[in-house]
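hiii, so i know i said id send this last week but things got crazy w the move. better late than never?? heres the sequnce for the chain we talked about at the cafe, plus the structure i predicted for it. fair warning i was half asleep when i ran it
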Amino acid sequence: MPFSIDVREKVLEAIQSGMSCRQAAAHFNVRVWLAIRWAKEAGVSSRRAPLKISDNVRNNVVKAIASGMSCSKAAETYGIDGSTAAKFADEENIDRTRDNIRAKVLAAIRSGMSCRQAAAHLNVSVGSATRWAKRAGIEGKPAPVRHGPDKREKVLEEIRNGLTLDLAAEKFGVKMPTIRRWITQAHDPST
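okay and structure toks below
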């Protein structure tokens, strides 16, 4: 249904006075796309009030980026726009370059973290952290060995049958503290 010039003018006046295109369209019962088109044709911009971001969110975003998180990930985490997160980082003079993030990952690995832990802590991929450590000649701490329940039961059964802890550790390739923990968790007085 064609609209009168009067309706078009009222929509444009509302937009000029501060309403968004969406608000003006709803107010005058026209389609949003039509209000946008009329505003564009008339050279009228829809002014929306900028979203106020709390100081708490801003501080969390800045801390996250300073610790190595990417601006896009920080923005996603705290529900803001990526360009806003980048603006906050720039205002705080935070070095967001890939070299800086790489240096933080390598420092974390040198301090005793595994590549996986450093990657999770600084929000980079495990592959990148591992590759950077390898290129830098750093031996990352290996990820902990996971033993299945079958191995646990075999070790505990051998100990119940008289095998000493150190021989069980050697035979099954399990560290002594792990075997002791299994015994404690089993609450088995015969072991």
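btw The radius of gyration is 31 Å. thought thatd interest u
miss u guys!!
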